[in-house]
Amino acid sequence: MTRYIRRAALLCALLLVALLVNVVRVQLVRSETYSGNPANRRTDIARWGQPRGDILVGGRPVTGSRDTGGLFRYARTYTDGPLYAPVTGFASQVYGSTLLEHARDGLLAGTDPGLAALPLLSGLTRARSAGGTVVTTIDPEAQRAAHEGLAGRHGAVAALDPVTGRILALVSAPSYDPGELSGTGAASARAWRRLDGDPDRPMLNRAVGQTYPPGSTFKVVTAAAALDAGVAGDLDAPTDSPDPYTLPGTRTRLTNEVEGCTDASLRYAFAWSCNTVFARLGVETGWKAMSRTAAAFGFDAPGPRVPFAVARSTFAASGASAAKRDRAQLALSSIGQFDTRATPLQMAMVASAVAGDGSVPVPYLVERTTTAAGTTLSAARPRTLHRAMRRETAERLRELMTGVVEEGTGANAAIPGAVVGGKTGTAQHGVGNAGTPYAWFISWARAEDAPAPAVAVAVVVEDARAGRGEISGGGDAAPIARAVMEAVLGDRAARER
Amino acid sequence: MRQTGRRGVEVSLVGLAVLLSVYGYCAVGLARHGALPPGAAGYGAGLAVPALLAHLAVRFRAPGADPVLLPIAVLLNGLGLVLIYRLDLETPGEAAAPAQLNWSALGVALFLVVVVALDDHRVLRRYGYVCVLGALALLTAPILFPAVNGARIWVRLAGFSLQPGEFAKVLLAVFFAGYLAANGHALAHSGRRLWLLRVPTGRVLGPVVAIWLLSVGVLVLERDLGTSLLFFGLFVVLLYVATGRTGWVAAGLLLAVAGAVAVGRLEPHVHGRVEDWLHPFASIEAGQGPGQLAQSLFAFAAGGVLGTGLGEGHSVLIGFAAKSDFILATAGEELGLAGLLAVFALYALLVERGYRAGLALRDPFGRLLAVGLASILALQVFVIAGGVTGLIPLTGMAMPFLAQGGSSLVTNWVIVALLVRLSDRARRDAAEREDDLARPPGGEAAAAGAGPAASSYDGTAAP
């Protein structure tokens, strides 16, 4: 019997070995796979198990965390949620995250390995770092001015520091309160259904996520290309332009909203936005030079990451062969119609290039990131995207843009004590151009005694209150731009005092 | 080792087991509230006093008993209490630890009764048929009561829920051991030869097969497949040890596989368990969220090598039965692979000591009983631990000593009490054998004769 007892014991030992091998499989070999399973709530429990790091605007946190007492312990809160929603995005325990909350999630949630004082040790002890802090470049006054300017409308504002590329304001309207989506309750689900199904798309950040036909504001790019290419020279010389202008190879006649465009000088045509002059100028400059300049401004390339992605702005319809790019299309593209589309941020970059010395700054939203204790982890370094035009061209364009504000369509943007340049735009869109036109205004401002420009801004209003035909960038968009520029200039003046 | 030395080892290990348990209890409190839990002293006393009483009973009534058995039982029981207390924190209003502590006390009380009252295990042999009738009565009782979660294994009396099947395990082990000790030789060497198998006469084989079929039938009706599997395994192991016929083991295994396949195909409850085992994440892919087994696997995976630490895991996500059938997942998550290996080592040691007692005993009944009881523990650990880790289809069963559930806990204490008694007898048997060998007259010849004599006593040809 002894032999059989030993054999039965051997069987038990085999069962034990099977258990051990399987446990090693589950806890070691398959551990990562199981832990990474989206249905495994441990990741989320850990992520929400501590207060999320904060996002700072003007040195003050615009976010917070509240203790829910639930399985997902801390839920996100927002002060002035709708105001900063186009910057922060939302961080929901159910619906994921967007914008800065998404782009800097690892840092805010505390999972970023850079946060750990001793990364190897924390891997062993499983201690989680406190969430880090994201310091934004947003100017709270400018942001508020833009937000209030767009109140009740659909549209967007993007404002940049033209020298560094710091984003000073990023506003989209209508907005929403991201705090409504934070938790796991029925209220969050209702809010999500309401916001997600809203035809006005409040969760869309129109300043970076939506492209519009830029209309006449694109004439800045056309003028830059023409001046750089030598097609245009003297700003005051007659341009030999007919009115109306028959698009090359077609019988379509392009007209103007204003008088006096026949043979107008570049200065007059820019100030009063003569379509005929710039359509012809674009055709004269040619596809090649126009495309090159547009690309140098940032068109026809993936949008910058600020750190979240910006939609691609286009000049020439991508992929179209040179043969197909006929001159009639070039004429329309040159006045910001046809296939030309731009995000408000892209147009702010155009204004920045003019305001500066002709080079386009890379826009950024995060000034620096720190640990919860305040140790800086990363700090932004201003960079240049491209030189978009020659220095002298930029100088002449500044002259043209100040002309718009001093005695042109952009008079509403004038600020006493500051040099302001601008360009209005009224963009047709929809089938047969039947939609309410978009009102545009792009501009920059420099305090009279300051050597460098303080702000460049782009404003688009989708549904200007004026009726069709009356709509104009100067009437609807320029006052908003002025308010933003005044806020930045005022802040800067206050700081220097 | 002198017998007093054995008891010294035992009391030291029991003290260590109590300390480890109290330490675990404190670790939970510190992790959750940053302070020692207020009940730590009471909990420690609640564990230490019964453990000490058990030790004293062993010291005076079974001084030769294996000194490792009792400490392992205390440690596993203490660890189980820690894990249940820890899970209680996640389910306010459903505290299970206090009841479990009471059941532990009752279990130790029964341990004391067995150790003190049962002078010689061979007495049990006389009650073989009483045991089997009792086992059948216990197994059939739940049929009169409503099913709980698909299994008809509960008896509700005066607010208590009992699983009589747990107690039946011990009774059946006693019966099988007694019956096979008496008829093992006849089973192995009588009857006609049929192809490769020697089939014993119906008179010898009849009763045991009938009773076994009956008990398994009852279990299938009650849908408690874990216990059914356990009884079958126990039967096959003891049959093999008693007769040494591999053919029967093979036939038994074939029967088991055929039965398992048939039940798995036909019975929807079991079929679902098999499907879960084959595709633990199917419910996730179907958009219904993770099922229990998936949650259990997630818990083990979250533990990794070192575990999250007591009180720091989320095994409560398993939901229903997290404190009972799935208690090992909490150990796996919070104590990690390291802790789990330690737990398995404790079970392995317990089983090994049971087998060792079986080897050292001289009477076939005692040998079979020791092997049977140890095998119950081994099979039970395998079935439930294999189930919750996805090794085999999950069948509801209590992890011995760890899981919430009074019936199981009390039964396991009785098993350990019997093993204590058996190991004490084994020690005395070994001492007598030494005395036989040391007897001066006869010299070489007497010593040479002792071996075959012992062997024939075993009823086998080989020592």
Automatic annotation (TrEMBL), chain B:
Keywords: Cell shape, Membrane, Transmembrane, Transmembrane helix. The keyword Transmembrane applies. Its main location: membrane. This is FtsW/RodA/SpoVE family cell cycle protein. It is found in: Membrane. The chain crosses the membrane at residues 12-30, 36-56, 68-87, 99-118, 127-147, 167-188, 200-219, 225-241, 248-266, 335-355, 367-392, 398-420. Residues 430-463 are annotated as: Disordered. Residues 439-454 have a biased composition (Low complexity). It is a multi-pass membrane protein.
